[in-house]
Amino acid sequence: MNDVMARIEILKLVAHPARIAILEELSKGVKCVTDLQDFIEISQSNISQHLSALRHAGVIDYFVDGRLRCYFLKNPFVLDLLGTIRKDYPAALEGPECCPVTKKGKYPGKRKN
Questions:
Q1: Which pLDDT value is given to residue 105?
Q2: pLDDT, greater one: 61 or 101
């Protein structure tokens, strides 16, 4: 699978509020399931299911410390993705005056003056 297709699969996988919240916390550093429970309002078993899906996709990984599994980000694409999600876009892009090919038609939306 090429890089673009792999990234598309990651986009599909992380398109869930709980998974975004988990990844946001992991972007701050290593976390155990109990640490994540402090920030995410879902059950431990549900968090574990999301962590398992993210791990199987290669987005995150873990190490064992005694009885704890400590999770961390593995795929650097996730940091860029989270940055894009957090980014503030102050305005929509301007629509064209007319069709750039035929030079005809008119934009039906409202324009800023």
A1: 77
A2: 61
Q: What pLDDT, on a 0 to 100 scale, did the predictor assign at position 82? A: 94
Element (H, E) at 65: strand 60-65
Q: For residues 104 and 94, what is the distance between their CA atoms, to the nearest angstrom?
A: 17
Residue 100 pLDDT level (bands cut at 50, 70, 90): confident
What's the whole-number mean pLDDT along residues 14-39?
93
Angle, helices 44-56/3-14, rounded to nearest 10 degrees: 170
Those residues with Cβ within 8 angstroms of residue 77's Cβ, 6 or more apart along the chain or in another chain: 7, 10
Q: How many residues does the chain have?
A: 113
Greatest Cα-to-Cα distance within the chain, rounded to the nearest angstrom: 70
Distance CA 72, CA 55 (A): 10
- Report the topology of domain 3-86: Arc Repressor Mutant, subunit A (1.10.10)
